[in-house]
Amino acid sequence: MKAVVVRGIQQFEVADVPMPEPAAGEVLIRVGYCGICGSDMEAYHTGMYAPGLIVGHEFAGVIAQVGPDVADWRPGDRVVVNDAVPCGECRPCRDGRLDACESLYMIGVTHDGAMAEYCVAPVRGLHRLPDGVGLRRGALVEPLSVALHGVHRSRLKPGDRALVMGAGPIGLLTLQCALVAGARMVAVTEVDPTRAALAQKLGAAVVLDPTRDNVVVNLSALTDGQGPDVIYVCTGAPQPYRDAISLVRKGGQIFVLGLCVEPVEADFMSVAMGDLCIEGSLAGRAQFAAAIDFVAQGRVDVESLITHEIALDDAVEKGFKLLDTPNSGAVKVLVRIGGELTADR
């Protein structure tokens, strides 16, 4: 079968690899669509994924085969997969902190992923797609769960004012989730014009370009001089992490959803003097079912994020390299592998 395989830094290739076989407690999924995630791009740039790994963790598909001892699932079931499965045995898991699991089974990160014709997944991560949600929109459930989990974990209350830093897919989904959660105003910072325009369309009160606009002055005017109650950092660039400390109101919260691989110098004197809270979250396991419901009910717009749909053969040249090009107009790139496979009900 064909798959996108890591060979090294900025060396991903579409290659022929052996068909995987589901073991006990696993199923084989014929992949319909798989998204290219920001963490996949970080791996492309830095080589943080092991050579030989098949990438891809934002996906939906149809079960092709069930492994031994698998009940309640059968070939033909339409599924979306929670890509981060905790072990249930380590200290964080025993303490109920499943997202902090020391041995997470992560599809496309620690185990072969779904940017391939077929993918193996543990049944513990499977969720059924409801009627009316096709595989294309189903591939956006995983990033939505990340945003939804971050907003749920944050201190945002109805009537609060928030700032989302970075209008990539996670930032745009966080913007919408914050509005659903009752934020009375959500501002966004973004330098890319396509992403900025999309943030405006999806409900941002204002979209500021930090290379051109005075972010401090604009946010002060929008928040009665106090600053946002919660800032969601949804970018891999280091500067917003530094800026957030000076932008959030006293007693406010900075919530980290982005992955910045570079070390960031922080003004921790201001953290202490401002009585600030800095938190972060990994993946969206706890909110995965809710994310499916959000898509099914149309509570957030995931379709508008999809700017490009490409074939598996073009995943590197027209996918990763496109997202690596400034101002390319790309937001969410979906790799179409099997398409809907069955009728989009």
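Second entry:
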Amino acid sequence: MKKQKSSKLNLKVKILSGSWKGRNISFLDKSDLRPTKNIIKETLFNWIQEDIQGSICIDMFAGSGSLGFEAASRGAKKVYMIDNNSEITNHLRLQKDYIGAKNISIINLSAFDFLKNLKDLVNVVFLDPPFSLGIIEKAIKELSSSDNLADKCKIYVEMPYKKNYEFQINTPINWELLKSKKSGEVAYLLFQHNISVI
């Protein structure tokens, strides 16, 4: 087997809980590929622990796969892991096979094109695009216009920290901010999509 020259494979993220607790998933050494820190991931999944079991989730900008694999490990019925970089999705498939995950679908497509063709109602969305792309607002707009968010769907947003970060992004009137915190230079927020507010 030829060694991959373009990317290192010795970078790891750990699954914190669930079926594959303690297993390490490797990810590619690529610019803008920034796994969610364990301290943030643990807080996030404490927030949404009642929502994950039996849920349908989308990891819209999968990257390392840290959030998607964690959700799958904790009992999500289906996790769609989306990335438009074929090298990343190929590597995610290797990791999926490595842990034997049957509840993960890895799709090489732009997140926005994926949303247009999605048929399922979604319970949890992870929205953590590369910070340098500056597309948080575009992703929120696309999500908010989708018919695929179930009532009480939880939307996790990770973004660069700025003072008063809760007010730095525009969200729909029916997205209720449930939680928000910061860790270093990262802010992270949890919203709930409420159909009854529309």
